Hints:
The protein is α/β, with parallel strands linked by helices and 191 residues long. The protein contains six helices and nine strands.
Amino acid sequence: KQNQQLLIEAKTQGFSRAGEKLPNQDRKRKTILEPIIESGTITWLFSKEKVGKTLMALSIAHAVGKGNRPVGTWLSNGPQSVLFIDGEMPGDKIANLCDMIMRGYGDNAGHENRPFDCYLFYEEELDYDSIVDDDWLALNKNKLLSYDLVIFDNYYSLNESRINIKPFIKLLKELTHNNVAVIVVDHTNTE
């Protein structure tokens, strides 16, 4: 029984008894978007279809990439590195949204002037089923870890294994354990 208990404790590093310190409670976090997003956290953005989740996510990407910009009543910290990953929109649609956001901030339009990186999975010509595909991750995981904020738009189109969320959660945990902030836009089951 004692060996079994040691095995359980060894496999559950997140477990903390009453009166013990919580794991990583002293982790240093930086503000990404005050007051809702800090480094090493996951924000899941979900609502009905056609209310502007992608526009909101791109607005956050712009504000965080540019630095010291508002998104409604929230304020981004200094400029930080952002990767926006889209799984369902073609490049011209993303470019138009970026132009609209930049004009709204009074910045020079032209999506090539955006202050964040984009990866359009929709436009990918290689044969990957999802962003949790082993080959895709082998090529891109270190890139993802180099950003302050990674935005996945959207969970449903980027994860072909929608019923088994475990590989996607494993990726999110690795990013957050490395102090990357994550936003997941979710259109799943919106009808």
